[in-house]
Write a structure and sequence with these properties.
By secondary structure, this protein is an alpha+beta fold. The protein is built from four helices and nine strands.
Amino acid sequence: MRELNEARRARLAAILVESLRQDPLLSPERAESETSFTRRCLRPLLDQKLSALGFPGLLLLGTGAAPMISCYMLGANFYPDLAIAYFGDAVFAVEVKFLRNAQRQNAIATAIGQAVIYSQRYENVAVVLIDAAGRISHEEASLATELLDSVPISLILRGATREGTLSSHRQSLEPAVS
């Protein structure tokens, strides 16, 4: 059986981050919750990627999949929106937040804070911010992505389009981990 060694874990994270950044996705519906959107759009995307990889032992966790691996900090348990485990070992966590007109600052700070908490247990963490109001420029998105990639936290920032899909704020991307 193949082992999910450090190089393969890094490659897995790079594949998942690139998929979350670039693969076609529908926009959230008007009153849809982050949990519902994650279950409807992101979970099937990651499930498809894992199936295509065909690597034994990888398991998708959260939103109706297998139970989540929690992270503990300051007397509280935190749970990513989606995660991937390898035979019970926490490998990749995803935090999803919508950026609407109200509470944008709080949503950004909360998502990044949660990602930091998840990084204590998960080897790789991604933050998916959905710019539902279309207020973030490509330049701002690039600067934020570079900052979080250097932490290392992978930022995935997608914007809603009039066609009901999510566009990517970056056209050509280098994976956070090669």
